[in-house]
Design goal:
The protein is an all-alpha fold. It folds into two domains: 31 residues; 103 residues. It is 61% helix and 0% strand. The protein contains five helices and no strands. It starts with a helix and ends in a 9-residue tail after the last helix. Bound molecules: heme C. Heme C (HEC) binds next to helix 2, helix 3, helix 4 and helix 5.
């Protein structure tokens, strides 16, 4: 009987230790910055990341339109409500992030509604991408830095 109690005790001790270990591993992987190494698996791409990709493609295309002297509009390039989409890392959903998103929204609406200065207003939109990405997700900055009209390629 004594032996039995002893082995139950040892077994449960091992179980507790094993659980602690697996929790450690989990919280470690949560710490990794998904933005620095965007996931390549299409099944794992969260809605916010997908909207960001669409936005970046829109910007590539708007840049070419504006360089060719064409106007851009919100029918071809609608505002993506990425701030209400599920992110890869939910810890970004804090006040500063939403403040950045608000400034981005204002700049984007201004681009689409003020047709006089679209080139200048486009540059202001890209500055907002850079602003938020400097604080939240620096991985895509390399791509974003190629979006201003002044970028030579
Ligand atoms: C308010 C903050 C904010 C603004 C503004 C913003 N982004 Fe992002 N961006 C993020 C966050 C956070 C992620 C990570 C999303 C995720 O993984 O769910 C991201 C991810 C991305 C990605 C990587 C998507 C992928 O493949 O995983 C690209 C590219 C990107 N953004 C481009 C842009 C461009 C271009 C703009 C401006 C037109 C912009 N972003 C504006 C916060 C922002």
């Amino acid at each position: 009987m004594r032996n039995f109690i002893y082995s139950v005790f040892v077994l449960s001790l091992f179980t507790v230790l094993a659980c602690q270990d697996s929790e450690k591993v989990k919280s470690h992987s949560d710490d990794e910055e998904s933005c620095v190494n965007p996931t390549k698996d299409p099944n794992e791409v969260k809605p916010m990341a997908l909207m960001m990709r669409t936005m970046a493609n829109y910007c590539d295309s708007m840049r070419l339109d504006l360089k060719a002297g064409k106007m851009v509009d919100s029918i071809k390039y609608p505002l993506m409500p990425f701030w209400s989409a599920e992110p890869t890392d939910s810890s970004v959903l804090e006040k500063t992030y939403f403040d950045h998103a608000e400034r981005f929204k204002v700049a984007y609406r201004n681009l689409m509604s003020n047709r006089e200065n679209q080139k200048e207003n486009y540059e202001l939109v890209i500055q907002q991408c850079v602003q938020c990405h400097s604080s939240y997700c620096s991985g895509p900055l390399k791509r974003i830095r190629k979006l201003p009209l002044s970028y030579q390629n």
